[in-house]
Design brief:
Elements: E1 2-3, E2 8-9, E3 14-15, E4 20-21, E5 26-27, E6 31-33, E7 38-39, E8 44-45, E9 49-51, E10 56-57, E11 62-65, E12 78-81, E13 86-87, E14 92-94, E15 103-106, E16 111-112, E17 117-118, E18 123-124, E19 129-130, E20 135-136, E21 141-142, E22 147-148, E23 153-154, E24 159-160, E25 165-166, E26 171-172, E27 181-182, H1 195-200, H2 205-218, H3 225-235, H4 240-251
Parallel strand pairs: 1-4, 2-5, 3-6, 4-7, 5-8, 6-9, 7-10, 8-11, 9-12, 10-13, 11-14, 12-15, 13-16, 14-17, 15-18, 16-19, 17-20, 18-21, 19-22, 20-23, 21-24, 22-25, 23-26, 25-27
Helix pairs in contact: 2-3, 2-4
């Protein structure tokens, strides 16, 4: 096995001879790490934890630490992680509690992006993607092939069905049906010209005034984007900044906030 000299591995840990423990990792007692699993650097693993084969843990993960549940009193509980998972930077996975079956589990072939949190007694099945900052409260079950968007929070005891997709920034307080698509309402509006910022950066008063007229026309509820651009070309004093805005709108493939 490849264990970096700066890593601390408890003698009671069971690490497969083909596993790799990188710099400054800490592996506690009652941790079992399978074949070809790699802890890149600064990864903390506390037992009882069982980790399968071909997993990669990126820097600053914390795996198997005690639950944040105030009811947890140090009773024996564990963490189980399967095979071929990618656990990205600063992910936290807490072990179970007696009240939830004493096990937190993650299956096979999952991607947990940076800053994901998997709380106590959660069960994440196979082939899921949890995007950056997604948070699972305690006792959550995530079905196979589910997709959970960035910074989405899932309330305790909710079930996330198989093959569903949840958009970013959602607050999930009820079960999500299998095969479904869920998202929260989003409304982002433009509020005209960044006048103060442009003045600080030395833009002329004429350019700022032209931009003000441009954004007023673009934001008009009576005009679509094409009509607004026609009015801008007819009514606004030409300048490089206005042409840049027009070009930006005309080249957009996703639409522009206005």
């Amino acid at each position: 096995m490849a264990i970096h000299p700066t890593a601390i591995v408890d003698p009671a840990a069971r690490v497969h001879e083909t596993a790799e423990i990188g710099p400054y990792c800490i592996v506690g007692a009652e941790v079992a790490i399978g074949a070809r699993t790699r802890l890149m650097a600064h990864v903390y693993v506390e037992g009882p934890t069982t980790i399968g084969d071909d997993n990669v843990f990126f820097p600053f993960c914390s795996i198997g630490a005690a639950s944040q549940d105030l009811k947890y009193k140090g009773e024996r509980a564990e963490t189980r992680i399967g095979h071929r998972n990618s656990i990205r930077e600063s992910v936290t996975v807490h072990r179970g509690t007696q009240g939830g079956g004493s096990i937190t589990s993650i299956g096979d072939d999952n991607l947990l992006m940076a800053y994901v949190h998997v709380a106590h007694d959660c069960h994440v099945r196979d082939s899921t993607v949890l995007a950056n900052g997604a948070t699972l409260g305690g006792h959550v079950t995530v079905g196979a092939f589910a997709r959970i968007g960035a910074f989405t929070g899932v309330h305790q005891f909710c079930r996330i069905g198989r093959h569903c997709m949840i958009g970013g920034y959602c607050v999930i307080t009820q079960d999500v049906a299998p095969y479904s698509l869920s998202s929260t309402e989003r409304e982002v509006k433009g509020f005209g010209t960044n006048k103060v910022g442009l003045e600080r950066r030395g833009f002329s008063a004429a350019s700022i005034q032209a931009l003000h007229k441009t954004f007023r026309l673009l934001g008009s509820k009576e005009l679509n984007t094409r009509q607004a651009i026609e009015r801008i070309r007819a009514e606004v004093e030409p300048c490089a900044e206005v042409e840049e805005v027009i070009g930006f709108f005309e080249s957009s493939e996703r639409g522009v906030v206005k």
